[in-house]
Protein: RING finger protein 113A
Organism: Photinus pyralis
Amino acid sequence: MEEEKAETSNLTCKFIYKKRSKPLIRNQRRREPSSSEHNSSNDESETTIVRRQKKRKPNPNIQSSSNKQKKERADSSGESSDNVTVSYKSKRSTTVSGPADQGATAVLEIDTERDRDAQAIFEKRLEINKELEGKEDDKIYRGMNNYAQYYKPKDTAAGNASSGMVRRGPIRAPENIRATVRWDYQPDICKDYKETGYCGFGDSCKFLHDRSDYKHGWQLEKEYASGEYQRNDEDDDKYEIASDSEEFPFKCYICRKSFVNPIVTRCKHYFCEACALNRYKKSARCAICNTQTNGMFNPAKALIAKLDSLKDMGEESD
């Protein structure tokens, strides 16, 4: 049995199928192309000009809906036809909507209503007393403000009987006045220039154009209340601005020449030694600020050191 299976396996044929191509017919008539094929071939052969669409830069001043939004709106309107639409009709007039004076005569509505304030209550009392004048008491309670008054208020030169200038009680506040309060601690300084740096009057402004930072009035009052106001006024160095390098004069004030053996006074002024001594023979006061020196002249060591350093720098440069 096994031998038969081996023989059958050896007898199996193995081959590869190759697809045959169509034979070429040389003497066959060429088929004419159809009209559609002819048009397509002509279109391919012809050159066409394609214009590129330039991308428009978005302009913030022009607002419009995109095509996508328009399509979505059209689709939504087609699907739901029961949407409520509102149309507005123009009045065809040139008048501006709102108040005619654009709110110039607007009233202030933060106080009590006009029909409930003290003046309205007083006028109501006058009307009720006028109706009940000469009649018997009907025993009807009309409120605490409407009791029978046997004294009839009269109009005066200050105003009518119901105005706040004649009657007692709170006065009806004016509705067209908007009161603002500002404490001006610096009436001589231009407020526009101080706050904004610009004044419409320019150089012709009669107030001072100064933007310096001063203490406000409430700060001065606070210092005065705490007892710190004008406490250190005797300190001479209170308003002195310290600098990193002290500035020295380059010439003597008396002889107008370079320093020779410079000295310094108590008031921090520099002179030549000979000039200072000659000045002291005539007057003991300083030649610049007229301060009493008492003949005390100290050698100006800082000025001498600076002159020596400048001299050394000049020699090195040469």
